[in-house]
């Protein structure tokens, strides 16, 4: 494993969050869908469960999308990650939970607003990528009709397609059909 378990999980959570309005419309448009997302990734701590909280998560989603958009420009990505770390007042501390017994970092108090906790942890996971020179693992799906993002966790950085819209399979089938049509 290239990254710690919590870094990988947080990077995946960031991708799902960003993609929640890029494929098949808005999928985090209400509190039940936000709660499903949060529970699916094991987010703990304070939840206000109101429109303001949902809007703050939407703003975080947009901010994270901008980081993916500039991932090919290390200086700009670092600037945005540092700004997110600062804005969330990241303050690391070690913890563990029954559902995740390995020691891992939390970067905000369980009493801080949800967007702040999520943003701090996602910014730190992105900082981990930057520190080890792996920012190029942040990608946009290579399918022409898809705007989803992905974090390529493959050993050789060969991942090109997201897992939200079956893009890889669709591209492979199209290429196969093209080869067959050309007699190959």
From TrEMBL:
Organism: Mycolicibacterium flavescens
Occurrences of domain Zinc finger CGNR (ranges): 137-180
Protein name: RNA-binding protein
PANTHER family: BLL6575 PROTEIN
Pfam family, any one: ABATE
């Amino acid at each position: 494993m290239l990254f710690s378990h919590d870094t990988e999980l947080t990077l995946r959570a960031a991708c799902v969050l960003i993609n929640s309005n890029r494929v098949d419309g808005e999928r985090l448009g209400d509190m039940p869908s936000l709660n499903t997302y949060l529970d699916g990734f094991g987010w703990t701590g304070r939840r206000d469960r109101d429109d303001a909280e949902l809007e703050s998560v939407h703003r975080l989603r947009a901010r994270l999308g901008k980081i993916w958009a500039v991932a090919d420009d290390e200086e700009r990505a670092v600037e945005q990650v540092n700004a997110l770390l600062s804005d969330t007042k990241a303050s690391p501390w070690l913890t563990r939970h029954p559902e995740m017994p390995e020691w891992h970092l939390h970067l905000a108090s369980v009493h801080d607003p949800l967007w702040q906790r999520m943003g701090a942890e996602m910014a730190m996971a992105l900082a981990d990528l930057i520190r080890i020179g792996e920012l190029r693992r942040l990608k946009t799906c290579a399918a022409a009709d898809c705007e989803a993002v992905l974090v390529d966790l493959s050993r050789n950085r060969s991942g090109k397609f997201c897992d939200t819209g079956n893009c890889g399979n669709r591209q492979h089938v199209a290429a196969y059909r093209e080869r067959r049509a050309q007699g190959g």
